[in-house]
Amino acid sequence: MKLAYWMYAGPAHIGTLRVASSFKNVHAIMHAPLGDDYFNVMRSMLERERDFTAATASIVDRHVLARGSQERVVDNILRKDKEEYPDLIILTPTCTSSILQEDLQNFVNRASIISNSDVIFADVDHYQVNEIQAADRTLEQVVRYYLDRCHRQEKWDQFLTDAPSVNIIGIFTLGFHNQHDCRELRRLLRDLDIKINQIIPEGGSVEDLQNLPKAWFNLIPYREVGLMTAMSLNKEYGMPYISTAPMGAVDMAEWIRHIQKNVNTLALSSSSKRVDYEPYIDGQTRFVSQAAWFSRSIDCQNLTGKETVVFGDTTHAASITKILVREMGIRVSCAGTYCKHDAKWFKEQIQGFCDEILITDDHAEVGDMIARMKPSAIFGTQMERHIGKRLDIPCGVISAPVHIQNFPLGYRPFLGYEGTNQIADLVYNSFALGMEDHLLDIFGGHDTKEIISKSLSTNIGLIWNPESRLELSKIPRFAREKVERNTDKFARQKGIETITVEVMYAAKEALNT
Amino acid sequence: MSVKIDETLTVECETGNYHTFCPISCVSWLYQKIEDSFFLVVGTKTCGYFLQNALGVMIFAEPRYAMAELEEGDISAQLNDYEGLKKLCIRIRKDRDPSVIIWIGTCTTEIIKMDLEGMAPKLEWEIGIPILVARANGLDYAFTQGEDTVLAAMAHRCPEPEFSFRSRKETIQNFFTFHSRKKEELVEYANHPSLVLFGSLPSNVASQLNLELKRQSIKVSGWLPAQKYTDLPSLGDGVYVCGVNPFLSRTATTLIRREKCQLIGAPFPIGPDGTRAWIEKICPVFGIEPQGLEEREERIWESLKDYLDLVRGKSVFFMGDNLLEVSLARFLIRCGMIVHEIGIPYMDKRYQAAELSLLQDTCMKMCVPIPRIVEKPDNSNQIRRIRE
């Protein structure tokens, strides 16, 4: 038992649901008590989806507790099958239901005999893995299911596509800037003249999964989700994969060179020509992306040597650390991640780029570290942003866990060359905002407020009695002045000299007429 | 009376495959209301993640709430849960020093049959802070019923009315001194037995209700919950209680049975019509004639004219998740809307009797058919009905 206020990664079933709801025409059924299906609300709200989320709950209540689910789960699966005609139904338990230890695999087997859709049981241990690991596993499970079936039915199409093509694995719902990153990757691949075979799971169809091996290689933009699938495809079908994150100018170049190597290797056996992307890399880095130019400008030079702290998921924390150090000349005092299961890779990546490394999922430890380091800026998650507010240190958000602000309507990728611009903007603005406040403090620039409030004091003659004063203090600060002014105006109009609680509420009612 | 309701009001029951929020969501408003409380939710990651998202930015202000996160060792009964909770409570006492710690039981604690009610008194004695146990789990309850279980638990801790007799004598003495001191003092209270209101409302709304009753010379002795745990009202034989929220049926039952209070069954003060009916039900109990309510209600309806023009004639379908649906439907019908169906997770017919009766009267007054009420609705069926 531990005391927890906040967690960086959600529970396992959220990961499974994210993968399921990213596919087209896949329906997820949660074996859960009332209230555990808050995922639907989260997704509608954050992704601004127009349709209902394709996830429902098979409710666990007292009857189920006493007698077991019996027919209920199977009935719910068959019902969804008839109502929605999904290609696939995924059954997932939640923490609560996994304690019940019902044989959900059995229910799935029984249901799949009758139903038209395929039915899979998402087998994830809720007490061992978190949201991210569960998403990775579920995706791999779904891909493997369809490829194995295709093999068994001997519908196997061995041939690679004629022209170079790739699969992008790991773009899915509620991911940090995933939709924008996806658009940017499409643009990039178009520039490189590489076709996209499939993007999974976002918008992908399970019926197409059997064609995954037709692509030349796989791209895994975020190693947290998608790596298991890529490794499995590599093992079974020999598909190469690139798991470098194309974030930042230096890693972008490396990523494109990897692609070049893969394309040229396979071009030998197909009728494609060899490619040389060096001119493209050069053109993009020096002219199209503004970030490299910016890093030589005086605005950026001012940031040289400033200290920062970076924290987030492995992909973003590692990449941002490298960008800050290599491309902008900014120091990273401490870099860390909450993805404890991937700590080894993380440490290897940022060795030599930062002074300290912190691997933890305890936000209090992160807060203590930041208070100790006293950096000029923080780059982290929403939690670090609030730590920063408390300690008066500016912060830019660079990773999940997310908030509605991290689903901007405008185009804001983190990957690709446009991503380098966005990151440079984010870094610069975070520092600039902090410096503005300091400058105003130093040069006494906050002088305009006092004069204004003094001129509004026409309160001569009005007395607020103790109860009404108490009532006024209960009103939140941002509304208090307005309420005070409105009440004063009302009292003056009615010729009242002493303001009581009744007068306050009468004034409030009068506002509406 | 009840026979008439059954004939004209249809209440059906469906499968219960609907969406609502977990009852532990009550923590998000109760911790703000009760200023010296600390809520400890004993559950798993799922519960914690939900509250994290529900509280939104508030979670960063380190509110007086925390999760006692059960890990694998706790679930398989390898670790001693008493010691675990004791450690956490000692830390809470050190960090926050609340006047009360409220343990919220979840689905998980139900399934592993954690004996929270057994452990709480022992731990309370050991660490010296009152510990309340409220089982707000999704197996039994929905959404706002979380508040119901917490208030029902809190009702047991309210003091006996001996103390209130003393304070009432003081009130009567003050009554005379007040009267002689200032002529401008608007209202004196009538002499009547204690009235306690129950239901969690923001303090300015509670003040407004207090004011409305004060206008009728009725003094509200206290609220359950009070702004501070240390200010709980006295309850007992001879105390009258009245609810302000429609989902507090268990609290009402606890107050009647265990605390021996008298419940005033009134429609709920939602909307100007509801508020008027609520006051009109309370006054006669104390032998008071309500004054000026008709004009007040008219004036409010006048001020809402622009909004009423917008909604008149439009229709509403309540899918049901928060148990306030009957009152809301009644109000909207009074505004001139048409209500097709009222879905509701659970309806206590006795506690909501006055509200249901008012709903019928309102429908007759506005000449619209009485909507059907569906308990434990099925969302897919509802969507089908909406389309039809």
TrEMBL record, chain A:
GO BP terms in the entry: light-independent chlorophyll biosynthetic process; photosynthesis, dark reaction
InterPro entries referenced in this protein's UniProt entry, alphabetically: ChlB/BchB/BchZ (IPR050152), LI-POR_suB-like_C (IPR013580), Nase/OxRdtase_comp1 (IPR000510), P-CP_red_C (IPR042298), Protochl_reductB (IPR005969), Protochlorophyllide_Rdtase (IPR016209)
GO molecular function, one term: ATP binding
Listed EC numbers: 1.3.7.7
Reactions catalysed: chlorophyllide a + oxidized 2[4Fe-4S]-[ferredoxin] + 2 ADP + 2 phosphate = protochlorophyllide a + reduced 2[4Fe-4S]-[ferredoxin] + 2 ATP + 2 H2O
Compartmental location: Plastid, Chloroplast
GO (cellular component) term, any one: chloroplast
Domain Nitrogenase/oxidoreductase component: 12-430
Cofactor dependence: [4Fe-4S] cluster
SUPFAM superfamilies: Helical backbone' metal receptor (SSF53807)
EC class name: oxidoreductase
Record-linked Pfam families: Oxidored_nitro (PF00148), PCP_red (PF08369)
Active site: D299
Domain Light-independent protochlorophyllide reductase subunit B-like C-terminal: from-to ranges: 464-508
Binding site for [4Fe-4S] cluster: D36
Positions bound to substrate: G434, M435
Highest taxon of source: Eukaryota
UniProt keywords, alphabetically: 4Fe-4S, ATP-binding, Chlorophyll biosynthesis, Chloroplast, Iron, Iron-sulfur, Metal-binding, Nucleotide-binding, Oxidoreductase, Photosynthesis, Plastid
Main location: plastid
Protein task: Component of the dark-operative protochlorophyllide reductase (DPOR) that uses Mg-ATP and reduced ferredoxin to reduce ring D of protochlorophyllide (Pchlide) to form chlorophyllide a (Chlide). This reaction is light-independent. The NB-protein (ChlN-ChlB) is the catalytic component of the complex.
Record-given protein name: Light-independent protochlorophyllide reductase subunit B
Lineage of source species: Eukaryota, Viridiplantae, Streptophyta, Embryophyta, Tracheophyta
Gene this protein is translated from: chlB
From TrEMBL, chain B:
Domain called Nitrogenase/oxidoreductase component: residue spans: 22-383
Alphabetical list of Pfam families matching this protein: Oxidored_nitro
GO MF annotations, alphabetized: 4 iron, 4 sulfur cluster binding; ATP binding; metal ion binding; oxidoreductase activity, acting on iron-sulfur proteins as donors
One record GO biological process: photosynthesis, dark reaction
Keyword Metal-binding: yes
InterPro entries per the UniProt record, alphabetical: LIPOR_BchN/ChlN (IPR050293), Nase/OxRdtase_comp1 (IPR000510), Protochl_reductN (IPR005970)
Keywords: 4Fe-4S, ATP-binding, Chlorophyll biosynthesis, Chloroplast, Iron, Iron-sulfur, Metal-binding, Nucleotide-binding, Oxidoreductase, Photosynthesis, Plastid
Name of this chain's protein: Light-independent protochlorophyllide oxidoreductase subunitN
Protein species of origin: Glyptostrobus pensilis
